[in-house]
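Researcher: Next sequence.
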Amino acid sequence: MTLEPPSGLRQNVLRTYEALDLKDFEECTKPEPYKKLLFGFTFFHAIVQDRRKFGPIGWNIPYAFTNEDYIVSRRQLKTFIEAYEQIPYKTLNYIGAEINYGGRVTDDKDSRLIITILRTYINENMLQDGYKISPSGLYYSPVAGEKQDYIDYIKSLPLNPSPEAFGLHQNAEITTANNTTINLLENILSMQPRASSGSGKTREEIIGE
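Model: Next structure:
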């Protein structure tokens, strides 16, 4: 079966948290840093997938990042947090951006980009409540609480995120809107009959209306 990621940043993060087993969320010997950095990896997972909608502005090549990449990163996060007294941020960034997700990246510029993106979410500042992960401060590191607390915060986020959430200029939305409109119109045209009969309106007249 093919499982497509939900369209939109909020829906992507929300589905990941709703599908997260309570055992995987709660059972860690260091729950607070684990939950904080787990949110970082979850947000990163949604960002790298949703950047594809921006076309070449998002990625030079549209990569098929999967849920398995996230699951492996989540398990490794728990293992490294429990195994070391100090959180190995450098190691977590390396295995996440250069092995788990980076193993799919073939373009050298995209490789530099994904490393930079993950560093935004996997660092010691993420352990601070309210740490801003977007210029507007709308997206931030929430308090390490229950699973439902995270879900409530995610539901409060905008349904249509601004490009600033992805670290992009506001004008990047123009490309996305153009691509979405073109795809929509192409789909409409593909469903129109190729020939018309009788005295009714022509295909061109129907499409025009």
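Model: The chain has two domains: 9-168, 171-209. The chain has a mean pLDDT of 90.
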